[in-house]
Amino acid sequence: MAEQITDETIEYVSILAKLKLDEKGRQKAKEDMQQMLDYVDKLNDLDTSKVEPMSHIFPLKNVFREDVVTNGDGREAMLANAPEAEDDQYVVPITIE
Amino acid sequence: MDISTMTATELGAAIKDGRTTAVEAVRQTLDAIEKKDKELHAFITVDAEGAMKSAAEVQKKIESGELTGPLAGVPIAIKDNICTKGLLTTCASHILDNFVPTYDAEVIIRLKKNGLVTVGKTNMDEFAMGSTTETSYFGPTRNPVNPAHVPGGSSGGSCAAVGSGEVSLALGSDTGGSIRQPSSYCGVTGMKPTYGVVSRYGLVAYGSSLDQIGPIARNVTDAAALLQVIAGSDSKDSTSAALKDYDFMSALKTDVSGLRIGIPSEYFGEGLEPEIGDAIRSAAEKLAKAGASVKEFHLDLIDYAIPAYYIIACAEASSNLERFDGVKYGLRAAAYDDLNDMYKKSRTEGFGPEVQRRIMLGSFVLSSGYYDAYYLKALRVKNLIRQSFSRAFADFDIILAPAAPTTAPELGKSLADPMKMYLSDIYTVSVNLCGLPGMTVPVGKDGMGLPIGMQIIGDCFSEKTVLRAAYTTERLLSEDGEGR
């Protein structure tokens, strides 16, 4: 039996996802997620108690290099993409009163 | 000289010989786009001015002998999730619809070094999430063979641009089939290389452990030539692999003698349109006659690939897409109460329904309390699926499969039932989960004239075996007047 999705779950997940769903959106998300969880529940047919989780196919190791700047100053071009910028800095709503 | 029916390597040779020029090639390409793209909508952005300017520079370097590669001067289209310095890169999303990258992706740097000329950025499913190119914020692309049908996705714009003859080459990306499935729908040749063969630096991330950039072309030779340009190790991508041999063109031989070919019976059962199964079996027979050994076998666990894939892909997507917050780039909502409200409103206005659906699912499977039951479970199943493919590759050099259960569906018929759309990825997602190379070659058409592709899957880093099998298939079919 798959996990049952409640209104509280959707509320909690939308906080994690940083999405602001209206009532219709929440209802739709609930239905979609329930359908998906009912479907993926079939993974529980498989006994994986002795199987390691595989995050990457190939063994990966950290790649180290000297911390040297190789690219030029892209400040102007980068700030040109900002929704709001002032004095060479990004403008955000007040975060600390 | 009319370049519209030439392959990329033919065009490259013609430019090198002085029969035409890079500038003329770009001019004709821009004309073709101007003529065809109003209906097709393969492109989000066409960079006419930039392309003409680069073509002139490239032509000078070809004449001076500085550029000598087989694709120098050839125009190319780039999927709009690959960063191009100074050129709009939207991921077909409202949230990035004004984003101009300040750097080139590694693949773009390599294209420039080899004298290829970017003519524009192609349409796609928003953030590569979809199988039809209908989730694009900018509207759908049409199938070049029949405009009432979808081109497939998510690299639908790139495949349609090549299929229509607007360009002879394009780059796509493939997270769960996004090069191989639209290549099949559009009747073009496309390859997803082994994970790590092509640098992901500058590819806007969807599922980082699954994403891979690959070539889309008119034939196998062109795909191999383009792969040879874009492949290579890159210190800017920590998952990049270093190969001993990057000479993919040398694999282009009509030779399958002794090649062990496996056909998983599970891929040819219920759910597959009979005409697709027939076309692939007929191609397999030709390969057998040419000296390959072809055997049916049982491939375990295929029913578990889609659930494992969607959990992993959505988990990675929810994490990767956290960066879109309305601060450094992209859309910011017009009105909001505070910082948190600004994040939420910007993301909700900026992301389309399919992207939001996947972010929600991904956030859920990664949340405390569900992480082990869903995310870790999926990673364990991925391990089992990899083992199943390893057993298969002990017996076979390549595996033949469909790229999709049907030929291209009609426009407007897929998005209403997302679950059905996810299930149609059955033949492609395992390749991404296991990091394998997979290539689609056209093997025929259905009763309605829509293209059918055959997927050739190899073990990790066996690109040359896959290319040789694909090249031989193409030759055998064209000798018999089939394939396209």
Describe this structure in words.
The complex is a heterodimer of chains A (97) and B (484). Chain A contains 3 helices and 2 strands, in the order αααββ. With 97 residues, chain A is mainly alpha-helical. The mean pLDDT of chain A is 91. Chain B has 484 residues and is an alpha/beta fold. Chain B has one domain: Amidase signature (AS) enzymes. Chain B is built from 15 helices and 11 strands. The longest helix of chain B has 25 residues. Chain B is globular and about 65 Å long. The model of chain B has no long low-confidence stretch (mean pLDDT 97). At the A-B interface, helix 1, helix 2 and helix 3 of A face helix 9, helix 10, helix 11 and helix 12 of B.
Please outline the helices and strands.
The complex is a heterodimer of chains A (97) and B (484).
Chain A: H1 7-16, H2 23-40, H3 75-80, E1 85-86, E2 89-90
Antiparallel strand pairs in A: 1-2
Chain B: H1 8-16, H2 22-40, E1 43-46, H3 48-63, E2 75-79, H4 106-113, E3 117-122, H5 156-163, E4 169-174, H6 180-186, E5 189-192, E6 212-217, H7 220-230, E7 260-264, H8 274-289, E8 293-297, H9 305-320, H10 339-350, H11 353-366, H12 371-395, E9 398-402, H13 418-423, H14 429-433, E10 438-445, E11 451-458, H15 463-479
Parallel strand pairs in B: 2-3, 2-4, 7-8, 7-9
Antiparallel strand pairs in B: 1-3, 4-6, 5-6, 5-10, 9-11, 10-11
Helix pairs in contact in B: 2-3, 8-15, 9-11, 9-12
